[in-house]
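Much of what follows relies on a compact textual record of a protein's fold. An example makes this concrete, so a full record is given next.
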Amino acid sequence: MSVALNLLVEILHETFGLPRMNLHPHATFAELDMDSLALTELGTIIEERTGLRMERFAVTCNLTEAADLLDRAADAYLDSLAAGETV
């Protein structure tokens, strides 16, 4: 599992109480019974833990796709640092 996917699984298990056995890479947020409010909270938690600015997750997004969004946010952050931008 990628670092981003591990972070998502950790947050979903610890904060939302979802069983780890349900948190497989192809599970969608809809299948995990997460609504838009829960996904907003998830994004906020990720931003607080990592300092990254996250796009909103769609309920149809699976955990692999969500991890990809997290990786893209990290890449954008690193690109902005390399360009000398203040974040």
